[in-house]
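Example 3.2
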Amino acid sequence: MLEKKCRAGMSQIRAKNHTLTTLKEVMGSKLTGIVLLNSASYDGSQLGPFQGVHLTSKDAQDTALIKDIKKAGARYIAASCHNQAELEIANSVKCDFVTISPVHIASCHPQATPIGWQRFSQLASLAKMPAFALGGVGIHDLATAQKHDAYGVSGISQFW
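Structure, written as tokens:
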């Protein structure tokens, strides 16, 4: 099911300084495909027209927040993971997919220590859901990512 949805187009609005209410006012009728909201923007209101939420690694630990997000109409919940402990949390809350990062140095987080493909593969193999490579990767890395147990690649600056 997720595979079909990904082919149809999935994106995330990463506007951490704006609330869900504001984003709905500005973007509501313009959204097409499957669009997830970053959990930093979630303000407790109904999600529509957004279909889900991508949790920060911190928010993935907040079971009350996750319950609220599901009640608000989330069809998809994803999580950012950087280590085994965060991945185990994502497994326990039954996320639909995860991003594992940073694989390489990323321009948006140059201070973060990259995990490389070998560690990515180790973490991805523990995931009970599709894992996307994130951090300094682009579409040109797709074949390499898939050889290391990634479902696909995700990114910001490499795609825009």
